[in-house]
Predict the structure.
Amino acid sequence: MNAVHSMAETAGAEPALGAARLFGPTLSRTRGTTGTITVGIVGATGYAGGELVRLLLNHPNVRLAGLHGRNRDNQPIATSHPHLSGSGLLIDQAVPEADAIFTALPHGVAASMAAQIVARGTALLDVGPDFRLHNPADYPAWYKFDHPAPELLAQAVYGLPELHRAEIRTAAGRSTTIIGLAGCYPTATILALAPLARAGLIGDLAVDAKSGVSGAGREPKADLLFAEVNESVKAYGMFSHRHTAEMEQELQEQGERGVLGSRDANPGVATVDFLPHLIPMTRGILASCHVRPTRPVTQAELDAIYADAYRDEPFVQVVADAPATKHVYGSNLCRVWCRVDPRTGRILALGVIDNLVKGAAGQAVQTLNVLFGLPETTGLEQYPIAP
Ligand SMILES: NC(=O)c1ccc[n+]([C@@H]2O[C@H](COP(=O)([O-])OP(=O)(O)OC[C@H]3O[C@@H](n4cnc5c(N)ncnc54)[C@H](OP(=O)(O)O)[C@@H]3O)[C@@H](O)[C@H]2O)c1
């Protein structure tokens, strides 16, 4: 039994690790003769890139083959990430040769580099949004750029292993392997709602979410200065936040895979009402999902569908008490909680993650493990940090 398993049990959730889920994928990318996967990180100077380096330095099957940063030449990693100075790594502007490349770049940049990366047979795992949306027309609509590689987009798999493990394994066996890793708000929201979507229970939906400031990246912006953010909470992205598109795509698909077998099974996910807020903290996302169900439900029914959905998931903990971002800080865990209000009949589903781990770098490592046939928890077994 490993550490993550023990955590799930102490949190009051069902035992979380199913052996079948951890071992024996039907397809995987080939590791080197020593069992080592060589990995490169493009955009290593940013927050998500730095978190990837931190996690991968402790991954027993990974060797970091190179770190890319624009306009950098043999630059010690300490220049960008002082906390990682002990690694002795250098950052360069060459895109490394490796079995897998993680891109952690602003939207539009990874899509323009993708063809060059996958042409070498390298698996591409994009932490940004360039390969998340299936419909190329969604990119000009939500991201204001025309996708430069729609033929590659057509081959990409949405990188949320809890919902797409089988497709990730299938993608591993292809000559072109591209994963569009799930966004941070969508990870917390979709994991909180997927069991309801599969049951066809989402009649109407409003998602009210809060994020720490690292979610905005490290590029300097006036509205992210300490004096602007501290002791203040603000809503932003009203009616237009880009992550809305991912939530609609994935929750509609869960309806199709669920009991009613239809993308229209949940009227509330046709157009999701999503309102994000910036909170004066560094890491963490809380998604509060307010659902008017399609029919009356009991708490016993909700308990059963959530236990069934996540019983074998190593990183999703269904908890009995309302979760807080502190409960998952620094870990790859997502905690979910779901209750029906007996007075109003509405359902409240909560999801919390660390945006830089389960919302970015941890999810990326979890997906790498699936692609290369490793136990999914490899390199990700650390407990959350507290207080
Ligand atoms: N932060 C999160 O919680 C989070 C979670 C999930 C997904 N994401 C996504 O991950 C991606 C990276 O986010 P982040 O928070 O790490 O951002 P960040 O801290 O701002 O880092 C961005 C990285 O991209 C590089 N970069 C910027 N423009 C570039 C260009 N034109 N060409 C090449 N490199 C360029 C930056 O290099 P310089 O150092 O030279 O500026 C830096 O390495 C984004 O797409 C974001 O949406 C972020």
In short: Residues 185-354 form a domain with the Dihydrodipicolinate Reductase; domain 2 fold (CATH 3.30.360.10). Residues 43, 45-49, 69-70, 104-107, 109, 127-129, 183-184, 214-215, 217-219, 355-356, 359-360 surround NAP (CB under 6 Å). Residues 1-26 have pLDDT under 50 and may be disordered.
